[in-house]
């Protein structure tokens, strides 16, 4: 490091403590000097040891032996603070250079206090929800010594067959960018150096959500244009938000596994975005390049990964075993190893691990703090989406005296937590059944008859009892959906209908003629057309976490008002996959005049049914579009006023409109701004979300809402492979969902 590259960021007016010397690439100069000093003392084996991550296992002596030799840089999956400190002590006090370990864990949507799954958080369209959830997860996880989480997962996901859609922020690039960046800020806090901050990891880099056929780990075929326009922006936003680490994805894109993909790891991540944190492989994904047929053996896999820009290997040990020899053989340059080690040490220094390596084993427990539970409840409330409310059956009226609570998800403390809850405990879950009894038991009599034991239960034996409960009640509330294990990693489905005999249960309940409220808890958007049709009201709650019960209870009884919106398109049938709102137009866009298949005349002429891009049996209309969700109240949108109808690429477009609460309840509307580039050098999506805002309004209240949109945000990767705004006509909508709103237009003139 040359002294000339360092300048002082101290302003003479600032107190001394805020002085940080930064290098001309914006890094903390003191940290960079420490990295260089340490690196100069390291043997090749010690360097490669830093690049090795193991998963904790029972035998602490054995692990300690490896750590002492400098063979391990990071340990994942150790959550006992006493063992965390014991391992750390070996690293700091007994290894030759005393480099602390980085302790990691998948803390995805909560540590002990479980928040709604990320797909649910995305339905809130509230970055504060995502940030708070991540902050609280960080506070709880760091209290046992975890300083690195493998989240946020920001894979744009347009296929609900893929089980990992649950972990994502859904189908939209912009929504995923905003929510992902908020999660990064929440996990990392104001400074990584704070003991309650944990390093975030933007994953899975990149394209994993586009797995062919929705089958986990499968190949993807994403063009560079789609990568840049659709899949990369959430990662760029995470990098800008300061994400300390990135994880490579399992998939090969167009033949190149991400773990060996220099184009994404070096050219884009490092050179274009200036990322200087650490890149870790996914679990065993270096070695899996052998199964891909991309590497012949461990030696080649290690060299390919490191040369492509991976810094640390998760669990497969190919680096540690093979890199010394690969360096000696000239297959990997020692400078490449040095760079990887710098990236790892930088994160460790930034986390303050060298100064403060241990966790306080004696500090009072922060788990399930009242404030954490309150935040989890708020998140679950904001995440629930009201899809239907015929005859205003919700909120339940004062006259309702008896409610039948049925269905396998009414009291499923494990399943409502959702996927990826290594540390969540079902003993702390508050289910809808327990919450309704506890919170509203003095107002209504509850008849509790599940009908089915769990979501896949096919036995019809209990259904008649549920029907009899319904007959004795004023209103039936059916809790259906899917168990936690039906979504998440490697849990993909080819059929998205309700499992087991749940459809039969809903049909039988509907036949009683009693008002039927169906609450669905699931890890993905299921195909619920029939059940929605049979129900008077439908409330969709992606697995809502520890406090799902009280949140849903308050929503049903009107103490809270639904405000969530669909972060994914809901399909009529799985055969419509992929169906997402931001699609490009074909030369023959589908008309909305869908004719059921059995109305197609016999021996009709070839073109009688029109020639457009659609399905004869299902059409292309979703069951519910992206961005959709009702409230107990109603909102009226005024016509948007634009600051100008002719803008230059350097301008900021200001869009102003009034939003009025025209109903009886206080409520919050998620107002959305969509834009379409009408004609461009490559075809562009029919609509793209560019802004959204949650607007709270009392009955009769009217507010002026303003969105500011820099014209530069209309840029896309064009025919010349350049990210630019092309002049021309644009359409704009301000709307309650992706299919509504009145079109207004503007022009970009240069
Ligand atoms: C998953 C990652 C996760 C890692 C560590 C992998 O199987 O794909 O998302 O972070 O395991 O548990």
Automatic annotation (TrEMBL):
Q: Does the keyword Cell division apply?
A: no
Matching SMART domains, A to Z? Fn3_like
Q: Which positions are tagged coiled coil?
A: none
User: Matching InterPro entries, A to Z?
Assistant: Cellulose_Degrad_GH3, Fn3-like, GH, Glyco_hydro_3_AS, Glyco_hydro_3_C, Glyco_hydro_3_C_sf, Glyco_hydro_3_N, Glyco_hydro_3_N_sf
Any one of the GO BP annotations = glucan catabolic process
Q: Which GO terms describe its molecular function?
A: beta-glucosidase activity
EC numbers on record = 3.2.1.21
**Cited PROSITE patterns:** GLYCOSYL_HYDROL_F3 (PS00775)
Q: Which UniProt keywords apply?
A: Glycosidase, Hydrolase, Signal
Tell me which positions the record assigns to the signal sequence. 1-20
The Fibronectin type III-like domain, residue ranges: 669-738
- What chemistry does it catalyse, as a reaction equation? Hydrolysis of terminal, non-reducing beta-D-glucosyl residues with release of beta-D-glucose
Q: Which family does it belong to?
A: Belongs to the glycosyl hydrolase 3 family.
Q: What is this protein called?
A: beta-glucosidase
The organism named in the record is: Bacteroides fluxus YIT 12057
């Amino acid at each position: 490091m040359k002294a000339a590259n360092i300048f002082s960021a101290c302003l003479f007016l600032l107190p001394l403590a805020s002085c940080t010397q930064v290098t001309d690439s914006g890094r903390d100069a003191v940290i960079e000097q420490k990295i260089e000093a340490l690196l100069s003392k390291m043997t090749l084996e010690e360097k490669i040891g830093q690049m090795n991550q193991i998963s904790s296992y029972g035998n602490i002596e054995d692990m300690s032996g490896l750590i002492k030799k400098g063979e391990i840089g990071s340990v994942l999956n150790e959550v006992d603070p006493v063992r965390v400190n014991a391992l750390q002590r070996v690293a700091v006090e007994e290894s030759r250079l005393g480099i602390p370990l980085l302790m990691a864990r998948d803390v995805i949507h909560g540590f002990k206090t479980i928040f709604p799954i990320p797909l649910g958080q995305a339905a809130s369209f509230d970055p504060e929800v995502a940030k708070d959830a991540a902050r609280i997860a960080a506070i709880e996880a760091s209290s046992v010594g975890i300083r690195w989480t493998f989240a946020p997962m920001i894979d744009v996901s347009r296929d609900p067959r893929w089980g990992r859609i649950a972990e994502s922020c859904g189908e939209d690039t912009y929504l995923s960018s905003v929510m992902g960046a908020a999660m990064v800020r929440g996990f990392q806090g104001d400074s990584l150096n704070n003991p309650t901050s944990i390093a975030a990891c933007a994953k899975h880099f990149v394209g994993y959500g586009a797995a062919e056929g929705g089958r986990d780990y499968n190949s993807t075929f994403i063009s560079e244009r789609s990568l840049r326009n659709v899949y990369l922006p959430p990662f760029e936003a995470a990098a800008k938000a300061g994400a300390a680490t990135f994880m490579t994805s399992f998939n090969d894109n167009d033949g190149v596994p991400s773990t060996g993909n220099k184009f994404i790891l070096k050219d884009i991540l490092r050179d274009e975005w200036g990322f200087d944190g650490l890149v870790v492989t996914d679990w065993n994904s270096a070695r899996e390049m052998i199964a891909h047929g991309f590497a012949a053996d461990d030696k080649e896999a290690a060299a390919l990964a490191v040369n492509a820009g991976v810094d640390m290997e998760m669990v497969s040990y190919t680096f540690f075993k093979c890199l010394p020899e690969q360096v000696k053989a000239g297959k990997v340059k020692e400078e490449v190893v040095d760079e990887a080690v710098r990236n790892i040490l930088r994160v460790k220094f930034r986390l303050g691990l060298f100064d403060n390596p241990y966790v306080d084993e004696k500090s009072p427990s922060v788990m399930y703090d009242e404030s954490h539970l309150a935040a989890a409840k708020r998140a679950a409330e904001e995440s629930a989406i009201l899809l239907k409310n015929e005859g205003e059956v919700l909120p339940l009226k004062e006259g309702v005296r008896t409610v039948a609570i049925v269905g396998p998800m009414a009291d499923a403390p494990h399943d409502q937590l959702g996927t990826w809850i290594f540390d969540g405990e079902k003993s702390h879950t508050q289910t809808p059944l327990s919450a309704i009894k506890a919170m509203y038991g003095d107002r209504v009599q509850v008849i509790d008859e599940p009908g089915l034991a769990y979501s896949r239960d096919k036995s019809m034996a209990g259904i008649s009892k549920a029907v009899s409960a319904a007959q004795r009640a004023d209103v039936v509330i059916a809790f259906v959906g899917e168990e936690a294990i039906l979504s998440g990693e490697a849990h993909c489905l080819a059929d998205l209908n309700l499992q087991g005999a749940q459809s039969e249960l809903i049909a039988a309940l509907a036949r009683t003629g009693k008002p039927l409220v169906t609450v669905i808890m699931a890890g993905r958007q299921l195909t619920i057309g029939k059940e929605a049709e049979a129900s008077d009201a439908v409330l969709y709650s992606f697995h809502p976490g520890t406090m799902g019960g009280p949140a849903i209870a308050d929503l049903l009884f009107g103490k809270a008002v639904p405000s969530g919106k669909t972060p994914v398109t809901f399909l009529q049938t799985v055969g419509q996959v992929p169906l997402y709102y931001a699609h490009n137009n074909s030369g023959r866009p589908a008309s909305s005049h869908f004719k059921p298949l059995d109305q197609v005349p016999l021996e009709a002429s070839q073109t009688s049914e029109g020639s457009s891009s659609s399905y004869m049996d299902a059409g292309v209309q979703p069951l519910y579009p992206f961005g959709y969700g009702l409230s107990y109240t109603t909102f009226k949108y005024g016509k948007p006023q634009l600051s100008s109808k002719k803008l230059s690429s350097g301008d900021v477009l200001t869009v102003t409109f009034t939003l009025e609460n025209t109903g009886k309840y206080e409520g919050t509307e998620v107002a959305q701004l969509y834009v379409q580039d009408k004609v461009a050098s490559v075809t562009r999506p029919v609509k793209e979300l560019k802004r959204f805002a949650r607007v709270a309004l009392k009955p009769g209240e009217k507010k002026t809402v303003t969105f500011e949109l820099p014209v530069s945000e209309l840029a896309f990767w064009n025919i010349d492979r350049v990210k630019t705004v092309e002049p021309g006509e644009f359409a704009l909508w301000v709307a309650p969902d992706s299919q509504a709103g009145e079109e207004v237009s503007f022009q970009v003139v240069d």
